[in-house]
Design goal:
With 442 residues, the chain is mostly helical. The protein folds into three domains: 2-213, no CATH class; 222-250 and 299-314, no CATH class; 320-440. 71% of the residues lie in helices and 2% in strands. The chain is built from 15 helices and two strands. It has a two-stranded antiparallel sheet. Strand 1 and strand 2 form a beta hairpin. The protein is globular and about 70 Å long.
Length: 442
């Protein structure tokens, strides 16, 4: 199980980061789920076509053989099928409405492929291989996906579409081929070249993300139907550059009412003092608001749906939604892993049946042990999965902070993925401003 977690951890970290970078117009989970499954499924045609390509490898020797393996059997076949599934599933999707979405889709497919490939390598070659691939192969697949998605997004919204579609395959294919060739060649100086190329790829990937991020536009706040004639209300009177204006007529009426009330008060005081109205040569101005024109309180406007506006404190930025998603995923993985524990249940039932048939008491005892062990293990793992899903729900609704702390602490016992998730969760919900969010929802 530790090998599987080691193989999955970098994939989840990368997917979370890409999802976080897609700030305003989030992609639907069902679409990302199908793209991830498609990436996992793409391993099958890759292995099938790769097996057929073995027929031609006998015609190559030396570095030519390495180049054929790197650029054709690995890079060409893998990047072709990844682009194929990304294009078929995402190109016509309604959610594909901005350039950055191409990166989200392509990286999701690439991570689906990478998680299956990584599990195969880690379970076959051990823990050290998993650690190396965590900082090399898996991020490399993400960079290939970023370059593919970059040009796929450009092809969707810019011209010439055909050129960008070709580049969506050519660029990741060449990058993948060079990556594999440098690591497969077995030439000492190429190891240094491989490290340098890996660093360049990382920089390239971040620049591509930054380049398409500038096209993302924060959506405008919704306008209530009851608010018309371009009149909006804000706590600050003179801030039209923020998109709000103060109702001038309402302000004038309020000032008139304040002056009248103040004058009446002075007259009443004069009558009481001298038995009649006296002429005052000197009066105090009416009280003014505690906010000046150059001060804007830390409040934002929320419409209550009836044409009235109200103020509420600006919510502090937090990562609770991202952590919630990770706990949902972690709980789902727990429940999925519990299915494997049922093997002990079936094994125990088989031993009991065989012992009864042969009259073997020891076999029946062993079968009973496996049966009970499997059932208890299955129920415990499923229960932990449900508790993690509940923690994800509470993080979203910002309730039951202590429950979330306990589940995060238990998650730390599941190294390395659970440990990372638990530590980040504890650090986040221990922040004072986050504590206040939970306290306000008690």
């Amino acid at each position: 199980m530790i090998y599987v977690q080691l193989a999955i951890t970098p994939v989840i970290v990368i997917l979370t980061y890409i999802y976080y970078r897609d700030k305003y117009n989030k992609e639907p989970f069902w679409l990302l789920f199908f793209l991830f499954l498609a990436g996992m499924f793409s391993v099958l045609p890759v292995l099938g076509v790769g097996y057929l390509s073995d027929y031609f490898i006998r015609y190559f020797r030396g570095l030519y053989r390495v180049a054929y393996t790197a650029f054709v059997q690995a890079a060409f076949i893998e990047e072709f099928w990844k682009l194929f599934f990304t294009f078929v599933i995402a190109w016509w999707a309604k959610a594909f409405d901005e350039r950055f979405d191409g990166i989200v889709y392509a990286v999701t497919v690439s991570m689906g492929f990478a998680v299956v490939e990584n599990i195969m390598y880690v379970t076959g070659y051990g823990f050290t291989t998993g650690l190396l691939r965590m900082i090399t192969a898996v991020p490399a697949h993400a960079i290939f996906g970023i370059s593919m998605g970059y040009y796929l997004g450009k092809a969707k919204f810019d011209k010439p579409k055909a050129i960008y579609l070709i580049l969506a395959f050519i660029v990741p294919w060449l990058m993948h081929g060079i990556y594999d060739f440098l690591i497969m060649a077995g030439v000492p100086w190429m190891v240094i070249a491989f490290i340098a190329f890996l660093i360049i790829m990382y920089i390239y990937g971040f620049l591509r993300l930054k380049n398409l991020s500038k096209y993302k536009v924060k959506p405008a706040p919704p306008v209530n139907d009851a608010v018309i004639n371009d009149t909006y209300y804000n706590a600050s009177a003179n801030t039209p550059e923020r998109g709000f204006e103060t109702n001038a007529d309402q302000t004038e009426n309020d000032d008139t009412f304040a002056d009248t009330e103040h004058s009446s008060l002075i007259e009443n005081q004069a009558v009481q003092a001298g038995g009649g109205v006296q002429q005052n040569t000197f009066t105090q101005p009416p009280p003014t608001s505690s906010f000046t024109q150059n001060q804007t309180p830390n409040y934002q406007q929320n419409n209550d749906g009836r044409g009235f506006s109200q103020t509420s404190p600006i919510q502090p930025k937090n990562n609770l939604d991202t952590l919630s998603i990770l706990f949902y995923v972690w709980g789902g993985l727990k429940i999925f892993a519990a299915l494997f524990v049922l093997i002990y249940v079936f094994m125990g039932a088989g031993l009991i049946a065989g012992g009864v048939y042969d009259g073997d008491t020891e076999m029946q005892f062993a079968g009973g042990f496996f049966l009970i062990f499997g059932l208890v293990g299955f129920l415990m793992i499923v229960a932990m999965g449900i508790l993690n899903i509940m923690a994800g729900k509470y993080l979203t609704s910002k309730k039951n902070r202590m429950f979330c702390l306990i589940i995060a602490g238990l998650a730390c016992l599941n190294a390395p993925l659970g440990t990372i998730l638990g530590i980040f969760t504890i650090v986040e919900i221990e922040k004072p401003e986050i504590k206040r969010l939970f306290e306000n929802n008690v």
